[in-house]
Amino acid sequence: MNTPIFRILAVRGALIVALSIVLGIALDSVHTSAIGWRQPESAGDVGAGEPQASNDTGGADSVGGNDPVGNAGDPLDEIDPPQSVTWEEAEALLEQATLVDARSAAAYRAGHVPGAVSLPFAAFEHQIAGFMQRFDPDTAILIVYCDNKTCASSDTMARILISRYNYRNVLHMPGGYAEWRQKEAGGNRPDQHGGLPPPLDEGDAAK
Amino acid sequence: MKIGPTVNRSGFRTAVRLVLGGLFVWAAVGKMGDPYSFYTSILAYDLPLPDALLRLAGMTVPWVELLCGLALLANAWTEAALGVQVVLFGFFIAATGQAWIRGMNISCGCFDLTMVGIAHDSAIIHFIDSVRFAFFRNFILLAGVAYLFAARIREMAHSEAKPAAAGSP
Questions:
Q1: Above 70 in pLDDT, residue A186?
Q2: Are both A77 and A1 inside the same structural domain?
Q3: A77 and A128 in contact (C-beta within 8 Å)?
Q4: How close A21 comes to chain B (CA, Å)?
Q5: Do A106 and B43 touch (CB under 8 A)?
Q6: Do residues A99 and A193 touch, judged by C-beta distance below 8 A?
Q7: How many domains are there within chain A?
Q8: Would you say the ipTM is above 0.90?
Q9: Are A97 and A171 in contact (CB under 8 A)?
């Protein structure tokens, strides 16, 4: 009906989006925490079972409802929070400790802290049995992380590992992958192993 | 007689516009500080889209939010900013909705709450940053954006019709 109005709307809306694309690409090319365009290079080392892992989260029984990973409002809130460590503190423990990446399998494939094993929060219930075979609750030292300070999955996962699976030594790295990137990777590259020591058991947790 | 309600409505719209503009700028600034983290937040939704498109979204969405937020604050190109936001919130609702249905317990990555001094491990972060809360919050924000958008389009249609109705002298 009011074609001029909708023409104005379409033209200006398109200009906003186009300008955003140009500015977004330009900023990303110089940003220290850039996204970049490169595809993850070594998705294969994640393990055959993992690509399905994130899709498995589609199972209604994986996280929702009353499962162990589940919802707020359960006794997890009453458990003492796991001890928090910075990346520097975590790094000092790496000879004995294992980093656990609680992010999605896709995020892990796109880049992760060297040596970290993937245990996606959303697929926790499917993968915890295999994880426990690899990492003994009595002896393993685990450091759980997720994206950055705003994500909650690593803290919750650490509490679950302590309270329901009886892991004795679980730490939480609240700064997450972002903290590691900021301090170690420092820029625009999909981080798999960087120049740091080779992974311990990458992807095994996903099997 | 009509002045009171009209002024109130106009004041209400201005307030909603300024609040939404401020929110969009806040959301954008938080994401722009660490685009890679925002990209990994998008990945966590496990959306069936090509990686290049997700990367482009990671780079572009913060700027869309910033430009739209500034447009709303400046009261310029508001119809376009609101139209773009309506579409954007449609995507946000679809993304958070599918994540909620699939039982994914992920950080939505929408607002950097540490910017306002809320500790990362506080209970309020767990609640506010949950995908369930994000889903409902997106609905509320979409309602605000759609309300302003409809009002703005009506306003434009009205001002366009006026001279036509008045005719040439």
A1: no
A2: no
A3: no
A4: 5
A5: yes
A6: no
A7: 2
A8: no
A9: yes
